[in-house]
Specification:
The complex is a heterodimer of chains A (about 375) and B (about 90). Chain A has about 375 residues and is α/β, with parallel strands linked by helices. Chain A is about 40% helix and about 20% strand. In chain B, strands 1-2 form a two-stranded parallel sheet. Classes of the chains: A alpha/beta (about 375), B mainly alpha (about 90).
Chain lengths: ~375, ~90
């Protein structure tokens, strides 16, 4: 059923369709509409369950972990400062192997203050053991929330779905809302094996020896790795049921590309237009979209870029002292590629600055014109 | 007035508190009063140490050892989830 709504409301609708009965959250611009919509539905009974309006994001994540470990499907949403505030509990959730699903609206981190789109908030959390997806638009965010529950409840790792502040969270588009029966078919009721059980009491989260901690991390790494395949399978199943599929990466016009632009999030949408236009002008240009960031789709990215000579990665983030984070990760993925392509790191859109088709064109031509490798990121300002 | 010893003792022997610790005695009495259908929420503190190291624990009830400042939302999360599951007769 088609409807017209913001990315935030698309996410809220996904949560309702997944019949998530437990939400613990705290409002923060630009996530607030997700919180408000879920709150309205919970209060009216349209969303069956309980919504805890916690005193902080740290508490929200703790409540989600606890509820998840008691055996119910949970959800929270946050952004920027809120995500940073729950940092400790992000590690805790992954360590508990709790299948919590969270939407993060990518917003720049203070200081200085701002509310605009920047990916650093979620990328800063890439070591916490959470599966991470980056969505281009509201439809993809909605679909990814539904897929996320299947993935999380299979591998027992929490999932973070990122959508950019305002460009996706507040932008209204036509969204295809799946029917409840379709979602019920795709997403069975949760049945956690390690739920908190008063009749068979256990001790959750003990102190362990070094060797045992190492063993847990080793096992978790195996589960995280399996997500590269699991996410593809779930996406294919999703496509069969709902008619839409995304993959863990997506390639556009890559076959004879002399330069490949690598993007994530809403910049991908703009880049699709630029690639089409530049192709019409005779330039051999292609696009690689990274959708799954954790685990990093090493094999898929390497396969997509095999034989390519020149890659320009556009990062709407900057890790001070290093560079764009998608670039870092992609360079690491390509290190063993024979005929390692030249990779150029472009910083565009930091702080929510607009990444227009002109900016992307500028990046493409800049990368094409370079002869020498360049480690440092290249900042593109309008 | 002396408290009669009750069975079962829900804070079992072998806990890791200091000898003579009042907190351990307090925990034992609280658990006696609350009974076996209890979920204990513990945060990093002496209580966290009293629990012991895997694979042993002295707690005789279902227990969760969570992080700093997080006992209240953890407990609320569990309570609400039990309510959702229709298991809130504890």
């Amino acid at each position: 059923m088609k409807d017209f709504m913001t990315g935030n409301h698309a996410v809220a609708n996904a949560v309702k369709l997944c019949r998530t009965p437990f939400i613990a959250a705290y409002p923060i611009t630009p996530q607030t509409a997700i919180y408000e919509k879920l709150s309205e539905w919970e209060a009216s009974g349209l969303l069956k369950g309980i919504m805890m309006r916690t005193e902080s994001e740290h508490s929200a994540m703790a409540a989600c972990i606890a509820a998840s470990l008691t055996g119910v499907r949970t959800f929270t949403a946050t952004s920027s400062q809120g995500l940073a505030l729950m940092h400790e509990m992000l590690h805790f959730a992954a360590g508990c192997r709790a299948p919590v699903v969270m939407a993060n609206v990518n917003r720049l981190l203070a200081a200085p203050w701002g509310f605009w789109a920047d990916q650093l908030d979620s990328l800063s959390q890439r070591d916490t053991g959470w599966i991470q997806f980056y969505c281009e638009n509201g439809q993809e965010a909605l679909d990814t929330v539904i897929q996320a529950y299947r993935i999380a409840e299979q591998v027992y790792l929490p999932v973070m779905i990122s959508l950019e502040a305002f460009f996706v969270s507040h932008f209204m588009e036509v969204v295809d809302l799946p029917e409840q029966e379709q979602v019920d078919r795709f997403l069975p009721p949760i049945d956690l094996p390690h739920k908190f059980d008063i009749d068979k009491p256990g001790f959750l989260v003990p102190v362990v020896s070094s060797e045992l901690y190492r063993k847990y991390k080793h096992i978790a790494q195996g589960s995280m790795d399996s997500v590269k395949k699991v996410a593809v399978t779930m996406d294919q199943e999703f496509e069969k049921e709902f008619g839409r599929g995304y993959g863990i990466v997506e390639v556009v016009m890559l076959e004879d590309a002399e330069i490949v632009l690598v993007t994530a999030g809403s910049i991908t949408s703009t880049t699709r237009m630029v690639v089409k236009d530049l192709r019409k002008q005779g330039h051999k240009i292609g696009l690689l979209k990274i959708r799954l960031f954790r685990p990093f789709p090493v094999e898929a990215a390497r396969d997509a870029l095999r034989g390519k000579t020149r890659v320009a990665i556009i990062d709407r983030n900057i890790s001070l002292g290093s560079g764009g984070i998608f670039c870092q990760e992609l360079r690491a993925a390509l290190i063993h590629s024979p005929d390692h392509p030249l990779t150029y790191s472009y910083i565009a859109g930091v702080g929510g600055t607009d990444v227009t088709p002109e900016v992307i064109q500028k990046i493409a031509f800049d990368a094409l014109s370079r002869k020498e490798p360049m480690d440092a990121p290249i900042w593109i300002m309008e | 007035m002396a408290f009669p010893e009750q069975e079962p003792n829900l804070l079992r022997t072998g806990h890791a508190a200091c000898a003579g610790c009042g907190l351990a005695i307090g925990m034992k009495l609280v658990l006696q009063a609350m009974g076996p259908r209890t979920i204990a929420v513990i945060v990093p503190s002496c209580e966290g140490a009293i629990g012991g190291v895997y694979p042993n624990t002295s707690y005789g009830v279902a227990t969760i050892h969570s992080a700093f400042e997080i006992a209240a939302p953890t407990a609320a999360g569990i309570a609400n989830a039990l309510k959702i599951q229709g298991r809130d007769d504890n």
